[in-house]
Amino acid sequence: MHRLLAALALILAAFLPPALGQETRSIAAANGTFDIPVSPQRIVALNDQILTLPLYELGAPVVGSAGRLAEDGSHYMRAGMDTLGIDFANTNIAFVGQFNALDVEAIAALQPDLIIGGTYTDPNVVDQLQSVAPTLVIDNATLGLVDTLKTLADITGTTSNFEPRFERYLANVERLKSFLGSAGDISVTLTFMFPAGEELWVYRDNLGAMTRVVADVGFARPEAVAALQETQASFSRELIEELNADFIFGFYRQQPDATPQAINAAYEKFAPGWCQALSACRNGQLVLLPAPAFGSTMTSLELALELVEAHIAARPFTPFDEGK
């Protein structure tokens, strides 16, 4: 019965555009130009971490979201509780499938007036959803974190919520620069290690809030990182000394298998003697930060900046000396 009703909702949506009677405006997205409501009232987001969390933070009316499936079959928003304290269970946001396995019927049943996806969204599904509501594809990888947030604020009419908060962030960046004196003399490496300890990822860009903070403050990068052709790369254990810097950052999650202890052990498993090989680690300057610090929200951006300030500006440290 539920599937029949959802199918009827999909058919009905094709003949009754949600924006009927609403004032509209033209918006250019990665998949074309569309007329969308000036003030959308029922938004469905096709990715939880990249879209739903920043939209919710902006105050946009999100009624449906893609999510993730836990081992017990329950669904959740990735980073939702850790970053903003939200999930499907404590909001009125409906689960509409996983970002790579969307339930088109469930989306139609919500009668959205705007649907927002990304370049990772199946183009065939995007085309299908156009009959439900204007469906915009946002290329967050090309836009970067801040321009993605600006775009989401623009299309949802929440720019007045975004701009003052972003201006405060920029002011705090300038404060940190004044504390540091010359940020360009301090080198930073951003790494990511999964608990299995099988692969080490190194980031020049595209690690959410953390790479934005590093760029805004103006920290230096090791030559090997600055020279990466892609925004990130898998590094072999034989090359880890090329990552040497004043500070090396990694990340843990608030999950039983990805605790700080588990991630530290994973680095050592990946490259035995890791800590002795790297100046930052020997000097206590390998810093693990909580996962929200590389998130896709203003909350993550503010958190990342505060943590970087606390770990670099608020303590003495031993600079990396290439001669040692």
UniProtKB/TrEMBL annotation:
Residues 42-316 form the Fe/B12 periplasmic-binding domain. Its main location: other. It holds the Pfam family Peripla_BP_2. InterPro entries: ABC_transptr_periplasmic_BD (IPR002491), Bact_iron-sidero_bind (IPR051313). Residues 1-21 form the signal peptide. It is found in: Cell envelope. It comes from the Bacteria. Keywords: Ion transport, Iron, Iron transport, Signal, Transport. Belongs to the bacterial solute-binding protein 8 family. This is Protein translocase component YidC.
